[in-house]
Amino acid sequence: MMKSIQLFFSFLKVKSDEEKPNLKQHTRHIRQASEYKSPALQEIWCHLRCLWFPDRPDIDSYKVYWSRRPQKHTLASCNVRYKKVRVARELDNPKYSHWIEPLLYHEMCHAYLGEPKASKTGRRSWHGAEFKKYEAQHPKIEEFNKWVSSGGWRSAVRSDRARRAFSNR
Ligand SMILES: [Zn+2]
Predict the structure, then answer these.
(1) Residue 57: in which H helix or E strand, if any?
(2) What average pLDDT does the segment 107-119 reach?
(3) pTM higher than 0.85, yes or no?
(4) CA of 164 relative to ligand 1 center, distance in Å
């Protein structure tokens, strides 16, 4: 995100007045470069929301994307300010489709609880006791966390790189 903002401003700086970029168009270009929409993800998101948080229809307004950038450590992220969830493109593979639900459910718990209060040192505990309590309700969470910690995610990253290297030959 930071990088795209920097890029955006340097882009503005080099252009003279008559060459000023179309702001809307440029923003769209950056967005396309970093993520892509998925109706399928969006559908799972709304399905999970109805099931687990029926009292919070506002959560349906989150936009759920696949990340275009290769990920190594981040399976998914939830931005509660911009109401946006991004899922690692490495999981955009039928082989891993059964992990999407527990993964999106984890992100939805962030959406439900919102930004945690900062401690005196300014730190925010995103995965505190309350979060864990909600997260544990989903029946696939435990199995999913085991899959991640036992190397499942690492192998998803490896096979994504191998597949892309092969298709670029
Ligand atoms: Zn989290």
Answers:
(1) none
(2) 95
(3) no
(4) 28
36-82 tens-digit pLDDT: 888 999 999 999 999 999 999 999 999 999 998 888 889 999 999 99
* 130 Cα–ligand 1 center, Å: 12
Ligand 1 centroid – CA 78 distance (Å): 8
Query: What confidence tens digit (pLDDT) does each residue in 33-43 have?
Result: 578 888 999 99
- Alpha carbon distance 139, 31 (integer Å): 34
DSSP β-ladder status, 63-67 and 76-79: unpaired
Pairing type for strands 63-67 and 84-87 reads parallel
CA–centroid distance, 29 to ligand 1, in Å, is 28
Distance 11 CA to ligand 1 centre (A): 33
- Average pLDDT, whole number, for the chain? 85
C-alpha 31 to ligand 1 mean position (Å)? 23
CA 49/CA 64 separation, integer angstroms:
13
Alpha carbon of 127 to ligand 1 centroid (Å):
6
What separation in Å is there between the alpha carbon of 72 and the centre of ligand 1? 16
Rounded distance, CA 71 to CA 89, Å?
A: 8
Token digits of residue 64: 């759920």
The pLDDT score that the predictor gives to residue 2 is 47
Q: Alpha-carbon distance 137 to 114, whole Å? A: 18
